[in-house]
């Protein structure tokens, strides 16, 4: 897939944004473990507002990745779980998260090397500022 050829508003790009968003990623990975009630999931993820988690879950539900099961009891009980499609996406996101964990030392070394050389800033013909280490 060549990202340069993808329209910013195409359905594939939008779904990828939903799956790889900060809260989308964390919700999908958490839901791989088991179904969660909203408040449990919020505690599991940590530092997400109620509004952002609700919005994220609605988006993932609309995309067919999350199933919302509202039980007609008092007090109301709502459970969230992954659909088959959601499990596929969550496994891919989890693999990326595990790769990041495994390769973090290499990323830190690259950052240190970049910072040691010093970032140079240049202005392109279009007036856009670009940074990078000297060649």
Could you characterize what this model shows?
With 135 residues, the chain is an alpha+beta fold. The protein has five helices and five strands. The strands form two sheets. It has a three-stranded antiparallel sheet. A two-stranded antiparallel sheet has the order 4-5. A hairpin with a 5-residue loop joins strand 2 and strand 3 (77-82). Helix 2 (22-33) packs across helix 5 (84-117). It is elongated, with a radius of gyration of 20 Å. The mean pLDDT is 89.
Compact overview of the structure:
By secondary structure, this protein is an alpha+beta fold. The chain has 5 helices and 5 strands. Strand 4 (120-123) and strand 5 (129-132) form a beta hairpin.
Order of helices and strands: HHEHHEEHEE
Give the strand order of the largest sheet, numbering strands 1, 2, ... along the chain.
1-3-2
What is the average per-residue confidence, as pLDDT, rounded to a whole number? 89
List how many beta strands DSSP finds.
5
**Low-confidence parts lasting 5 or more residues at pLDDT below 50?**
none
Strand content: 15-25%
Assembly level: single chain
Overall 3D shape:
elongated
Number of helices: 5
What percent of residues adopt helix (DSSP H or I)?
A: 55-70%
What class do helices, strands and sheet pairing give? alpha+beta
Calculate the terminal CA-CA distance, rounded to whole Å.
Answer: 29 Å
């Amino acid at each position: 897939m060549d990202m340069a050829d993808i329209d910013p508003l195409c359905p594939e790009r939008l779904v990828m944004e939903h799956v790889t968003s900060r809260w989308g990623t964390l919700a999908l990975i958490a839901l791989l473990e088991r179904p969660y009630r909203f408040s449990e999931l919020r505690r599991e993820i940590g530092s997400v507002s109620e509004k952002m988690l609700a919005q994220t879950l609605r988006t993932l539900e609309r995309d067919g990745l999350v199933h919302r099961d509202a039980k007609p009891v008092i007090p109301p009980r709502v459970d969230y779980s992954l659909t088959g499609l959601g499990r596929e996406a969550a496994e891919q996101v989890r693999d990326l998260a595990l790769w990041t964990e495994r390769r973090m030392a290499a990323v830190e070394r690259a950052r240190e090397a970049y910072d040691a050389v010093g970032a140079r800033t240049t202005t392109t013909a279009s007036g856009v500022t670009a940074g990078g280490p000297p060649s």
